[in-house]
Automatic annotation (TrEMBL):
Superkingdom per UniProt: Bacteria
Protein name: ROK family protein
Family: Belongs to the ROK (NagC/XylR) family.
InterPro entries per UniProt: ATPase_NBD, ROK
SUPFAM superfamilies per the UniProt record, alphabetical: Actin-like ATPase domain
CDD domains, A to Z: ASKHA_ATPase_ROK (cd23763)
Amino acid sequence: MNLYNDKRIVMTLDAGGTNFVFSALQCGKEIITPIILPSNSSDLEKCLKTIISGFKEVQNELLPESPVAISFAFPGPADYENGIIGDLPNFKSFRGGVALGPMLENVFNLPTFINNDGDLFTYGGAMAGFLPEINKNLKNAGIQKEYRNLFGITLGTGFGGGMVINGKIFKGDNSASSEIWLMRNFKEPNLIAEEGVSIRAVKRWYCEKVENSTHLSPEDIFLIAKGLKDGNQDAALQAYERMSVVIGESLANALTLFDGPVVIGGGISGASDILLPKIIEHLNGEIETRTGEKIPRLVSKVFNIENKSEYCAFLDQKFQNIQIPFTQKSVNINTEKRIPIGLSKLGTSEAVCLGAYAFALISLKNHKLA
C-alpha cells in the first residue's frame, strides 16, 4: 500500500492533556492548518464536546471534500478495539469507561479508529519510515532479506511501546500489549522501568549529584554531558548512561520474545548519541548460567544504524553454503541473526499521525459502524 498515492481523507487528533490538535491527511500529508483547542480534560462533558466541535471544524475546512474516517491516538488504558477509554491518569474526568469511538461514529457517521500512541508511532515507522528504508537498503546491497516486524519505543514524559507483526499492529487479546513502561527497572528493581526512562528520571539522577540544579531541563543536562554548557559533566553523563541501561534491559527482555528491528522516538531520543551506544553495548553484552558460563544476552546481534560504520557492517551480511546430507547439493544461509536499532526518520508526531492515517485506510473495508 502506497500511502502517498491514496487520495482518501482521514481526520486526525493529537490528544494531549492540555490541548487537542485536530487535522486531516490525504496522500500521507497534512492538508489543513491544524486546529488547536483546550482539552478541558478535567470536565468530561466539556472534553467530549470539544472533541466533537474540533472534528466538525475540520470537516468544515475540508468542504467540498469529505473524509472517509476518523483515526487518532488516545491515552490508555482502553479497549481500543471497541473505542472504549478507561480510567486515565492525565484525564481525571475519564472514569468507568467512556465510549469515545462509538460516540464519534454516531455523531459523524464515519468509521472511527482509536489506538495507543506507541502502537501508531511504530505502525507509522513500519508503513512509511524506518522499516521501508532498512528493507530498501538491504535490497540495494543485494541482500535477499526483508524485515516484516517492528518494535517501537518512545522516550519522553513516559516510556511508551508499540509492536507491529507482519505489517499489523499487535494489540493483544486485551488491548494491553507492548506496555514496556511496566518492565522491572534494572537499576532499581522495586520500581517500574518508566521511573528510570523518562524526563523526570534524568532530572532526578542529575539533581542527586548536583545541588541547586532542579531548574535544569533534560536538554540542559544533555548539553552539559556534551560539554556545551557549564555544569557537572560526569553527573550528566551518568544520568543518561544510567537511563541507557534501564532502556537496554527492558528492550533485552522484549526482544527475547519479539524478534525484529527497533525504532526509537520521543523528545529524549534527541540524546541518542549518548544513549544508543550504551543501549547497544548492553544488548550485545552477556548473561550467565548458574555454572558461570557466559552467553550472549540476545540470540541476535544488535546494530546501531545511526552510526555509519555500524550500518555498513549491518548491511555486510555473511552467507555460507551448508551441505545437504547424503546429496551433492547445498543451501545458502545467513550465518548471523541481526537486529537493527535506530531513530524514527519521520519524527514522533508525524509517525503517529501517519500511523493513524494508514491504520484507518487499511481497516476501512472490515469496519462496521457502531
